[in-house]
Amino acid sequence: LEKMTDLVAVWEVALSDGVHKIEFEHGTTSGKRVVYVDGKEEIRREWMFKLVGKETFTVGATKTKAAINIDAVSGFAYEYTLEINGKSLKQYMENRLKTTNTWILNLGGTDYRIVLEKDTMDVWCNGEKMETAGEFVEDGTETHFTVADHNCCIKAVSSGKRKEGIIHTLIVDNREIPEAVE
């Protein structure tokens, strides 16, 4: 593996199927551009005469759209910005906080990252979309699934406040798991 001498930017992006590392090499003398996702080369361009522009690719199991914008700041200085689904990384992550819940827990010595996509009610665990069973209960809904022989349930109940909306709680083996902040 050649040494990444032209590495100019590294981002970590939390998606439903996991946290992905995006690395970007930009050779400003050679015009080289290389994009790595989770250590795997996705794009390689040699001898690009135009040093500014955009590289587009996908990330993760859900093939989320991503783009790196290369802009000249001054002289030979460049700025690199990452977009996810057409939004800046910051906007994307802020929106994700509203549309997903994430829990990190350890069961039998193994770490699990569970993500609920509120719009679809899809549940992801360590990069796998889970088989779930939903049911209506007296005070809301319950989404049941199993992780490593542990019974898991995401309860959705109304907060009673319009601004807060629905509160989602993960319960594993009758124990409430606190939500993680990524």
From TrEMBL:
Q: What is this protein called?
A: Fas apoptotic inhibitory molecule 1
Keywords per UniProt: Apoptosis, Cytoplasm
Can you cite an annotated GO cellular component?
cytoplasm
The keyword Cytoplasm is assigned to this record = yes
Q: Which PANTHER family match?
A: FAS APOPTOTIC INHIBITORY MOLECULE 1, FAS APOPTOTIC INHIBITORY MOLECULE FAIM
Q: Which GO terms describe its biological process?
A: apoptotic process; negative regulation of extrinsic apoptotic signaling pathway via death domain receptors
* Top-level taxon: Eukaryota
The primary location reported for this protein is cytoplasm
Q: Which family does it belong to?
A: Belongs to the FAIM1 family.
Its job: Plays a role as an inducible effector molecule that mediates Fas resistance produced by surface Ig engagement in B cells.
Subcellular location, record wording? Cytoplasm
Species of provenance: Orthonyx spaldingii (Chowchilla)
